[in-house]
Design a protein that fits this description.
135 residues; Immunoglobulin-like; six-stranded mixed sheet; two-stranded antiparallel sheet; elongated
């Protein structure tokens, strides 16, 4: 994860890549970024696989690919009402194939994402062309 704060606007796809190093088979992972100065709300979640402990049979299915010391790519799209500001990496949550939840909050790398407001400036048109019936 980088020291630079990357900026995104509504509609941008954000990809978070991490390496999972755990002895258990991982059935799901969730990475949470929380809005600065707003610890009670406004988070961005990146998830893959099962993210809650439940009774579903899919819960025990490990993530495809190498899930022990494996690279995991998580994606999310900035939605239209996402509050602008700086979001800091808050926690990583894993669900094992054996239905154990592991939440990591300590010793996470410092990482941040900046959600920018959409530009309100009018667009620049070099040319507008109106087509009509041939004469």
């Amino acid at each position: 994860m980088s020291e630079e704060i990357r900026g995104f606007v509504t509609g941008d796809k954000i990809t978070v890549t991490t390496r999972v190093e755990h002895a258990a088979n991982i059935a799901g992972i969730a990475v949470y970024y929380r809005l600065e100065n707003n610890p009670q709300g406004h988070a961005i979640a990146f998830t893959k696989g099962a993210t809650r402990i439940g009774s579903g049979s899919e819960q025990s299915k490990p993530l495809p690919g190498p899930y022990i010391e494996g690279e995991v790519k998580l994606e999310n799209v900035v939605y239209p009402r996402q509050r602008p500001g700086v979001y800091h990496l808050e926690s990583v949550s894993l669900i094992t194939a054996g239905h154990q939840q592991i939440v990591v909050q300590e010793e996470l790398p410092a990482d941040s994402i900046r959600i920018l407001p959409e530009p309100a400036d009018p667009p620049y048109f070099e040319r507008l062309e109106v087509a009509g019936p041939e004469t």
